[in-house]
Write a structure and sequence with these properties.
Number of helices: 14
Number of domains: 2
Largest sheet: 2 strands, antiparallel
Structural class: mainly alpha
Radius of gyration: 19 Å
Bound molecules: heme C
Shape: globular
Length: 311
């Protein structure tokens, strides 16, 4: 479907079950109203990965959650692979008015995402689960692509207007997707605790390029982690939740500082600062516990926030 349809949807203020976007404010700004739903923002399927993690899997997991590997509207709206394929499952309630005909279906070959990808057809497709994707030898509804790596590249570049991914990024995304073994879907509440545990895992991933003394990769990973901290920050939307907000801002600044050290070639210091940051996040300040009930990790608060008019 073309852009006018989106505009029409906007004018009509169509609402429906919406998309899981990790960026609340990005999605509010860039997606039509009705694209965010309480269900997808307050719970997600249990992830459980196959054993045998390495750096590739961990970096792929972070990249899968990072909108900045995509381009165009997806990136601006804060959508990542994770938004449609939450923890490797299909996000059944994903719905963007004008681009979806039913929840869980979306037109990915649309000018809304990428001018070059527009095929002139209104063709929403069912979002597939990526669980067990390792054992498949054909990808996509047309089964034309025979390699997960090629399909992943196509998703980034052709569907979502991202920059050409380099070999490492593709290796990592493939390694992560191959760890998504088929399991029964069990929904878990989205919690601050899980989100902070993920940040600790991402910081452990950053240790690798710091040990290798690879400034470019350190910068790339640190930037992705700052994006994830930003998503947590958005859940503390209320300006009064100053304690939590400033802790998150401070951690993000610390990451910037580490990035600066790597650029200056001050590696031992950078590694020490990362260890300190990890320790700080592992024992978060008491403000978080105090602020949690007033944050958007609280389902009622989130529901109220979602029902507020956009502007
Ligand atoms: C806006 C929602 C959306 C986003 C974001 C998204 N996908 Fe998808 N994905 C889909 C849809 C819809 C299909 C079905 C496309 C088709 O059949 O051709 C799909 C298909 C796939 C498939 C094929 C699976 C199969 O069994 O054939 C893979 C692999 C995949 N996506 C990986 C990714 C990766 C990796 C990212 C991030 C780089 C991503 N997707 C981002 C919606 C999305």
């Amino acid at each position: 479907m073309r852009r006018p349809a989106i505009t029409l949807a906007l004018l009509l203020g169509l609402t429906a079950d919406g998309a899981e976007a990790q960026s609340l404010s990005g999605a509010r700004e860039w997606l039509p109203p009705g694209s965010l739903s309480l269900e997808t923002l307050s719970q997600r399927p249990d992830e459980r990965l196959e054993d045998g993690h390495n750096f590739y899997v961990a970096f792929g997991r972070l990249a899968f959650r990072s909108p900045d590997i995509l381009g165009g509207t997806a990136r601006k709206a804060g959508l990542s692979c994770q938004a449609c394929h939450a923890n490797g499952f299909a996000t059944h309630a994903f719905f963007i008015p004008g681009l979806s005909d039913r929840p869980g279906r979306i037109d990915v070959t649309n000018a809304f995402w990428h001018l070059r990808g527009e095929d002139g057809i209104n063709n929403p497709l069912k979002i597939p689960s990526l669980r067990g994707v390792k054992t498949k030898d054909r990808f996509g509804h047309d089964a034309r692509t025979t390699s997960l790596r090629d399909f992943t590249r196509r998703v980034i570049v052709m569907e979502f207007a991202g920059d050409e991914p380099d070999g490492l990024l593709l290796d990592a995304l493939v390694a992560y997707q191959e760890k998504l073994q088929p399991i029964t879907e069990t929904l878990q509440p989205v919690t601050l605790q899980q989100d902070l545990t993920d940040i600790l895992d991402h910081l452990d991933t950053l240790r690798v390029p710091l040990a290798e003394e690879n400034a470019a990769l350190s910068g790339r990973i640190a930037t992705m982690i700052r994006g994830q901290l930003g998503f947590i920050h958005e859940r503390f939307a209320d300006q009064d939740l100053r304690g939590s907000r400033s802790a998150l801002e401070e951690w993000s600044r610390q990451l910037m500082g580490i990035l600066q050290l790597t650029e200056d070639g001050r590696w031992p210091e950078a590694r020490q600062r990362l260890a300190d940051l990890r320790a700080a996040i592992a024992t978060p300040p008491a403000a978080f516990a105090a602020d949690l009930s007033r944050s958007l990790y609280n389902r009622e608060r989130l529901a109220a926030w979602l029902s507020k008019p956009v502007r």
